[in-house]
Amino acid sequence: MKHDARWSQKVTERSHALDLEPGVFALQDPREIARSLARSAEASSTRRTDPFRSAMSMLNFYINRAGSRLTAERRDRLEAAKDELRALYGRPRRRV
Question: Cα(82)–Cα(47) distance, rounded to whole angstroms?
């Protein structure tokens, strides 16, 4: 089985992925990242699940695909965005 190095790009382009605001994952404020993802999830007409799950899935997808290329500071910011997303949707914060 041949590995396709661009499979994540294909997933993003051809799936029911959210239409994200440009630069959302480069924002400095975790709350703004969460708000942007929430706006995209709420506005989506192609999502297959509730807005919270769609937004959280996209955030996890980005973190997982970036992997070791993320600096500790960016990873912490994106992990904090998860908590902000949970707060926006009234979900409990993760346990540490």
Answer: 19
pLDDT in tens, 66-94: 888 899 999 999 999 999 999 999 998 87
CA distance 54 to 42: 9
Cα–Cα distances in angstroms (integers) from residue 67 to residues 17, 39, 51, 74, 95, in the given order:
19, 25, 24, 11, 22
- The separation between the first and the last C-alpha atoms of the chain, rounded to the nearest angstrom, is 39
Give CA–CA dist 83/15, Å, rounded.
26
Structure tokens at 94: 């993760």
pTM value surpassing 0.85? no
